[in-house]
UniProtKB/TrEMBL annotation, chain A:
Belongs to the binding-protein-dependent transport system permease family. InterPro entries: BPD_transp_1_N, MetI-like, MetI-like_sf. It is found in: Cell membrane. It is a multi-pass membrane protein. The chain crosses the membrane at residues 12-32, 102-125, 137-164, 253-277, 297-323. This is ABC transporter permease. The keyword Transmembrane helix applies. Its main location: membrane. Pfam families: BPD_transp_1 (PF00528), BPD_transp_1_N (PF19300). Keywords: Cell membrane, Membrane, Transmembrane, Transmembrane helix, Transport.
TrEMBL record, chain B:
Residues 348-407 are annotated as: Disordered. This is Nickel import system ATP-binding protein NikD. It catalyses: Ni(2+)(out) + ATP + H2O = Ni(2+)(in) + ADP + phosphate + H(+). It comes from Salinadaptatus halalkaliphilus. GO terms for cellular component: plasma membrane. Its EC number is 7.2.2.11.
């Protein structure tokens, strides 16, 4: 099986998983207390007939499985239902909010990878030296500190005390400089994006950084003790090349797995970080939907989050197969 | 006689661990001449691999070469001298780390390791790895190095080398991978190849093929080999001269026929008796009693005496070095056993140690551990006399160390 067929195979495998996500979400949303019609009426006294009419209009009088089929038919067409609270289609609401969340999560990952890999390698090559001990303490701090607390502390220090960086909101580069009255040029726009992104990125990325750094260190130590490293040394390969090529590439496979699997922690972390930094992303929308008991919106966001996670895992598998020649794409040997 | 290609004198490599100093290689001397295959034989833990890695100065922390001299083609790979302050320091003519890397490793001395799966990098192609080493050690441009790599793959009997060049290690069988490693070693055109148990991981038929291949290629390229193995059968098949190692020391050194037919050391005899031999019919194989003690606390006197069927009282006290006991084919036959007349240590008058042998053979740190089942009248006296005579420094700290390693 080639890489292309393997990709297709993995995508097909994702279908039952996604179906499972929608079923569980749908059932849970319908089991939850609270009646959507009463919510719509917001406590107004109305007669039974009107309630029945509304239920009929939205199909709420029909059995659960019929409603699920109708819902899924809509989902397949990209229609995730209608948000009663916002009075807007769910798809539209989510599309407007998915950008900031992805920007936040991806930049947090970029930050985590860019710092964790060099630090992990340095810790591995200077094992049990002061550098290694410092990195161990940093990692321990990163793993054991909640991201929202780091976020609040960063705001207190850099925004409130020092006043260097803004504490709320984001500037979205895809809107262009014209969308902001106070920004004139593209470079200025990107600069403002970076300034606004810096603190939430660090707050969300610290946990990932700490985890990745420890794994990178362990993997590099193991890789550097591999016999292929001794062989390369015995053939006069310079130490720098051994580190960068022979040991490094082998050490990256578990890193990729962890990045993929940690996508779930990163997404749930983003919910909190968006709240702390007042960013209008999916996470904030999610919390608002829960507070308003807006079931259609809750379901829609859960499905989108689930899909992002499943796609992330597939991408992980594919890059694994691309980097490690031993991954056989599930064919029989 | 011309100078040997490689001369090792009194080499000592030690590992400084929390539990104490491990004397993995403890004063060995041997030579490899041009075109020779020299065996380095012994049980696991005898220090064979550490010895061979010392030759490339590839000893990793906490290990260190602490004494001795390694000379290769007149260049000093390792050598110490006494400085003005009385401390030992590295000799000025000793090659620097950078010189070892660029002038010795790969292009002069190449290695083949035991496990071809572990020693090939799983994420790079066979060809890529071969080419990298050729480029580096023969200063060839990429294209020429690739051509050379394919030529060498063909040379070691890999079918379809152009296609296999781009494949990964996991796509090769064990025997084929070992052929790749041999191609790697030969492609760098070294004068000496260290083969560290290269056939141990292979099954017997493949082992035979590989040995045949090495024999053939050795004739063609006239490369010298240092062949590290625990297998006397392989030694008989391939080696010209043999060094038998026990607990960091070379206990016997002889041309291969001499070693097999006029064995001078009881350990070698025991090794030979413990394996099937085509030239002798024996009813039953005799395994060597006990296990080899740890190099962290070697027994006093002759290190083999706790397991030696010929051990006598004197063997507990006097530590023999390898001395010339015979001469054959222009080569000395050395053995480190007090029973030979050259030692004149009073072996013949010394009472045999048979009881002690049986009682203590199974004790890992040798026959002198306290609290063991030994200690009946005669044996106790001997133990005391050992400490008094002080054949090896045995102060209080050291015996404490031993107590720890036992637990």
């Amino acid at each position: 099986m080639g890489l292309a067929r393997y990709t297709l195979y993995r995508l097909l495998q994702a279908i039952p998983v996604l179906l499972g996500i929608t079923i569980i979400t749908f059932v849970l949303a319908n089991l939850a207390p609270g009646d959507p019609v009463q919510l719509m009426l917001a406590g107004q006294e109305v007669d039974e007939e009107l309630v029945e009419a509304i239920e009929q209009q939205y199909g709420l009088d029909r059995p659960l499985h019929e409603r699920y089929v109708t819902y899924m038919a809509g989902v397949l067409e990209g229609d995730l239902g209608y948000s009663i609270h916002w009075g807007q289609p769910v798809t539209e609401l989510i599309l407007g909010r998915v950008g900031p969340t992805l920007l936040l999560v991806l930049s947090a990952y970029a930050f985590a990878i860019a710092t964790a890999i060099p630090l992990g390698i340095i810790a591995a090559t200077r094992r049990n030296e002061p550098t290694d001990h410092v990195s161990r303490i940093v990692a321990l701090f990163g793993v054991s500190t909640p991201s929202f607390w780091i976020g609040i502390m960063l705001i207190l220090l850099f925004a409130v005390q020092l006043g260097w960086l803004p504490s709320t909101g984001l500037v979205y580069p895809w809107r262009g400089p014209d969308a902001y009255a106070w920004i004139d040029t593209w470079p200025e726009l990107l600069y403002q994006t970076a300034r606004h992104l810096l603190l939430p990125m660090i707050a969300l990325g610290t946990l990932q950084m700490a985890t990745l750094m420890r794994v990178e260190r362990t993997q590099m130590i193991e890789s550097l003790h591999g016999e292929y490293v001794t062989l390369a040394r015995a053939y006069g390969v310079p130490e720098r090349t051994i580190l960068r090529k022979h040991a490094f590439q082998n050490a990256q496979l578990p890193i990729i797995t962890i990045i993929g699997l940690n996508l779930s922690t990163a997404l749930s972390g983003a919910v909190l970080i968006e709240y702390v930094f007042n960013i209008n992303g999916m996470g904030r929308l999610f919390i608002e939907a829960i507070q308003a008991l807006d079931y259609q919106l809750i379901m829609g966001i859960t499905i989108v989050f689930g899909t992002i996670f499943v796609v992330g895992v597939i991408v992980t598998d594919l890059s694994y197969a691309y980097i490690d020649p031993r991954v056989t794409y599930g064919e029989e040997e | 006689m011309t100078d040997p290609l490689l001369r090792v004198e009194n080499l000592k490599t030690q590992f400084f661990t929390d539990a104490g100093t491990v004397r993995a290689v403890d004063g060995i001397s041997f030579e490899v001449r041009e075109g020779e295959i020299v065996g380095l034989v012994g049980e696991s833990g005898a220090g064979k691999s550490v010895a061979s890695m010392s030759l490339l100065r590839l000893i990793e922390d906490p290990g260190e070469i602490v004494a001795g001299e390694i000379t290769y083609k007149g260049e000093t790979i390792f050598g110490l001298e006494e400085g003005p302050d009385g401390e030992l320091r590295e000799r000025e003519d000793m090659l620097s780390n950078e010189e070892i890397r660029t002038q010795i490793r790969g292009n002069e001395i190449a290695v083949i390791f035991q496990d071809p799966m572990e020693s090939l990098n799983p994420v790079f192609t066979i060809g890529g790895q071969l080419r990298e080493f050729i480029e580096l050690n023969r200063d060839l441009p990429k294209d020429a190095a690739k051509e050379e790599a394919i030529r060498m793959l063909r040379e070691v009997g890999i079918p379809d080398p152009e296609q296999r060049y781009g494949e990964y290690p996991h796509q090769f069988s064990g025997g084929m991978r070992q052929r790749v490693l041999i191609a790697m070693a030969l492609a760098c055109e070294p004068s000496l190849i260290i083969a560290d148990e290269p056939t141990t991981a292979l099954d017997v038929t493949v082992e035979g093929q590989i040995l045949e291949l090495v024999d053939e290629l050795q004739d063609k390229y006239d490369t010298s080999f240092l062949w590290v193995t625990h297998d006397m059968g392989v030694v008989a098949e391939i080696c010209d001269r043999v060094n038998v190692m026990y607990l960091g020391e070379i206990v016997e050194q002889a041309p291969v026929d001499e070693l097999f037919h006029d064995t001078k050391h009881p350990y070698t005899t025991a090794l030979l008796n413990s394996m099937p031999r085509p030239d002798r019919t024996v009813g039953e194989l005799e395994p060597i009693e006990g296990v080899m003690p740890e190099a962290i606390n070697p027994p006093s006197g002759c290190r083999f005496h706790p397991r030696c069927p010929e051990a006598r009282e004197v063997c507990q006290r006097v530590h023999p070095d390898a001395r010339e006991v015979a001469h054959a084919d222009g080569h000395p036959h050395r053995a480190a056993c007090l029973k030979h007349d050259v030692f004149d240590a009073g072996y013949d008058e010394s009472p045999p140690l048979e009881t002690a042998t049986q009682e203590t053979a199974g004790v890992p740190a040798g026959g002198r551990s306290t609290g063991g089942p030994g200690g009946e009248d005669g044996a106790t006296d001997l133990k005391d006399s050992v400490i008094e005579d002080g054949g090896e420094p045995t102060d209080g700290t050291r015996s404490d160390d031993r107590g720890e390693t036992h637990e």
